[in-house]
User: What shape does this take?
Amino acid sequence: MKVMKTLAATTALTVAAGAVAAEDMANELTLVSWGGAYQASQNKAYVEPYLAMNPGLTVIWDESSAEAVAKLRAMDEAKNVTWDLVDAVASDSMRLCDEGLAEELDHNAVLAPAPDGTSATDDFGDLIVSDCFVPQIVYSTTFGYRTDMVGEEAPTSVCDIFDTTKYPGKRSLQKRPIDNVEWALYCDGVAKDEIYETLGTDEGVARAFAKLDTIKDDVVWWTAGAETPQLLADGEVVFGSTFNGRLFSAIAEQNQPIGMLWDMQSFDLDGWIMPANLPADRRARALDFLKFATDTQRLADQAAYISYGPARASSAPLVGKHAELGIDMAPHMPTDPDNSGNIHVYDYEWWADNRDDLNAKFEAWLAK
Amino acid sequence: MSGLPPYASTGQRTWYYTFRVICGLIFFFLIAPIVVVIPLSFNAQDFFTFTPEMLRLDPEGYSLKHYRNFFSDSGWQAALWNSVRIAPVATILSVSLGTLAAIGLSQDHVPARRAIMAILISPMIVPLIISAAGMYFFFSRIGLQGSYWGVVLAHAALGIPFVIITVTATLVGFDRSLTRAAANMGADPVTTFFRVQMPLILPGVISGALFAFITSFDEVVVVLFVGSAGQKTLPWQMFLGLREQISPTILAVATILVVVSIALLTTVELLRRRSERLRGMSPS
Amino acid sequence: MSDMTDTGPVLAADGTPLKRSLARALRRQKLRALMLIAPLLLFILISFILPVGDMLYRSVKNDIVSKTLPNTVVALESWDANSGDLPEEAVFAAMATDLKSAAAAKIHTKVGGRLNYENPGISSLFRKTGRKAKKFDLEAETVWKDELIKINKGWGDTDVWRTIQTYSSPITAGYFLNAIDMRVGPDGPEARPEEEQIYMKLLKRTLWMSMMITVSCILLAYPVAWILANLPARKANLLMILVLLPFWTSLLVRTSAWKILLQQQGVINDILVWLHIVPDDARLVIINNQFGTIVAMTHILLPFMILPMYSVMQTIPVSYLRAAKSLGATDWTAFWRVYFPQTIPGIGAGSILVFILAIGYYITPALVGGTKGTFISNQIAFHISTSLNWGLAAALGAILLAVVLVLYWAYDRIVGIDNVKLG
Assistant: This one.
């Protein structure tokens, strides 16, 4: 009898423990992001407040955004998607949407309107580049330069990158054709609105590479966003392209002698996508978080930790000071009118079609 | 070779010392990166750069903040814990299976010996990125992707060639009559294995284990694919640190690992000397 | 033969014929050996060979076209691509049917992406048409040829149809052709335009640089292994710690350290400038090129060369050298004719290990190799995680694997795989 009791008690305990475990499982939210300072800004601006409002929920961060498309494809092949929300750049989100790996969202239905009642679609405007994409930030790939290595006259135009007599020394560029071929054509005299038309022809591509050839021996190619700030800090390069937030942190937080060159900064977007076909409970949880994390106040809050522009028009006036340094963040945003006089917005559609082709040519050009 | 004979000619003397210098330089080459990493880990800045303050030996230029960051940051601590949880288990798996198989392979009549050997060595010769992608798809399909055991199995597979190679090498010189003698005297196969064969091939097994352990402990390509957030190991965390935001915390971790391994290797060496002394053997 | 039958077979102690008894013993021995190997073999097959095989199969797999566009593929069979005419209406109607169901299942862009590898622009053709395809009315009397060309003039291009026809079979050589810088043209396989040829060049470079790395490893490892093998054990073991230490330092950290050492404002250049060996405005370029890759990779792989050499040298008795010298050989002759030949297995083992490991590396070349010092594995990694052209990555991987296997086989022939020793 005693044995039976013990057995029953143990079984009950085990079942209860199992139930608790299941409960825990049920309250997990797996967010995929980039790691580093960017993920930290997301954590502080909306994950921590959200957790405070939802005790019992656990957030699991997975720093896999760089491999997001590859991993989601494989997860989909295996029919075992473990992610709830994925932070992705616009071009990746379009790819995921096209392949049916991300869910198409009705932005007005799932996102909060602006405080003044403007609908989410109007508030985000044309930054909603794909039906699956909920933009968070506007960032840019732009140049930083060593203030102590450029002589008397600081560079003001992106074409100074191609001027090796005026600014001798190495420059670092991202190891991909996107942005670089556009800058090359622009500095070779092609009008901004004719860049993609020109790139569509073999002669145009050759022309871009010919322009890049003039500085090829002076280029250090980077693949990870952290490389250019390091190269600039070492004085290894005079100029370097990277994401503007990285430059901000090197300048404002690390006090490096680096200046910003905003001319022809290349705008890009980063935001959330939700994997397609999530189970109903996980989908509901992800959407609830998404609504909170992309409202006007939260996006403005994020700008206190990192110098990326909030994607909502209504967030811009709320951007305040840096959370630790206490400096005004607005002038450091890529979207600030002083910085965005001459910008470059790359053509997602065009690149979606021609990426593979141009990549092959670019790699062959590099290996030459 | 130790020492120069008194009758050595000038040429021989010169060569003797030149050779020593060359060897010294090569040893320096081996540890040069470590020599650079250690001071930089005390950098007060967040870059991998020798600042003017550091070169002046100004205390302002140095700081322990990267060490503090390592010990206080939950991400780094979790990564350390994951590495410690994964590497030894993967090592045990590859050593136990690998040693058994090596013994099997060293028998006289093994059918398709070469083919089997090639298959067992293959994790070493397939380019890592191909293995990583293949395991990723396959493990996703059987539900192992993103699980602790998925990473352990993948790492064990990568470590196996090293175990096979080292253990077969020691078995080549193994005198089979010893096991026969043990069997003759009534020892069962298990006893024979643990009491006779194992102690003799132990050096091979240990160095195989060492390689297998390092393979897992320092592996970043496969774990990036096969693992998920819950299996983030130290190399993965370092990789993120290099990609997203350069932080000398990586160097602090490296320094800690170097110090720990120097301590371990020295302890092993001291223990070895002690046991030699106890057994009354003079070091050769 | 005849007198054997008289006496009958030789019997073993238990009365069974000796031949059978021996055969049984042999079988048992074989079985025991296999039993010992079986667990590992099974383990490797499941956790490694199957996944890799599955991956490599992607290099020829192409069922996506015939699965997504089943009607079109059948209808296109009779079309002659070289006629210069567009396919007939039936083909366009089949395409409309296929597109409608593919768009509903959201798989039309996948096939577009696949065909885009062969013919840039097809991706957007499928994407744009797909948006309208959901509303196609297949019952209505539509001339699909006009309708599709009206939606996107890309459908009026015979090249597009040629590409679909060429890649409609479930197995393709396309990825492999691409991996050797070729493509399927109108008249069968042809070389790609010169500005797109890259992989063969990279493969040659990978082999060449791996060889350089192996050679520099041999040159640096030999003296070290020799001194380790000939010093008293106490000293040798201490020095061994120096050899093993780099092993315990993460590969990523070591590579970063080489960056710090080698860059133009780096430690080595700083010291050279400080010593006035190199002028400040002409600092050496020793990183982001082949030299940088060779130095960093040599460092990383050096222990893999030292350890096998050391274990071989340890077994060579010193008395051989003494004997040679007492017989009148000079130091050099004694070394070259007596000592060196005995160390060849160690060199061989270390070389194959270093070469094979070098050929597959990609993180280090990516970080210190610049544009001229990267390997073919870098391209494989790029196609797996960035361009997502997994078929091409698999084809490149298969070629690389084939090269390694040939080397492995040659090595096994020449040295024997059993002679590989690691410490």
In short: The mean pLDDT of chain A is 89. The interface with chain B takes residues 30, 34-39, 60-64, 66-67, 71, 74-75, 77-78, 80, 82, 224-227, 229-230, 233-234, 246, 249, 253-254, 256 of chain A (CB under 8 Å). Residues 2-26 of chain A form the longest helix (25 residues). Strands of chain A lie at 28-32, 58-62, 85-89, 134-146, 171-174, 219-222, 239-243, 258-273, 309-310, 343-345.
